[in-house]
Design a protein that fits this description.
The chain is α+β, with helices and mostly antiparallel strands and about 120 residues long. Helix content is about 45%, strand content about 15%.
């Protein structure tokens, strides 16, 4: 797709949104290119209401990290979050003053499983 075609489609989306009393946030909008080749040298400059849309290699959308159709970065973020939660549970599980086993299981289900699901 050419840059002009993409810019025309963006303008159509903005017109559609304005006709329905909606608005796109130009500061939160970013562009991501998906190509079959690993490194693409195309620099496409798009604008949303006179604001240049940043081109990024990865972004977060609905709590998921999207990166060139790969899950590596998203899984790395989830692993980091789970490790942090498990370290907190470890602090509560010492034998001398630790919490009861059912309490630890509830903590695990509440903290760690909620991140993984």
């Amino acid at each position: 797709m050419s840059e002009e075609t993409l810019q025309t489609e963006i303008e159509k989306l903005v017109f559609w949104a304005v006709s329905r009393v909606l608005q796109f946030s130009s500061t939160k909008t970013c562009a991501m290119h998906f190509f079959r080749v690993k490194r693409c040298k195309h620099n496409i400059h798009l604008k949303l209401e006179q604001t240049t849309i940043d081109t990024v290699s990865s972004t977060r959308y609905l709590g998921m990290t999207i990166e060139r159709l790969s899950w590596k970065q998203h899984i790395a973020v989830l692993i980091k979050k789970c490790h942090q939660k498990l370290n907190l549970i470890r602090k509560f599980s010492y034998t001398h003053y630790g919490a009861h086993q059912t309490t630890l299981l509830q903590l695990y289900n509440t903290l760690t499983r909620s991140v993984m699901d």
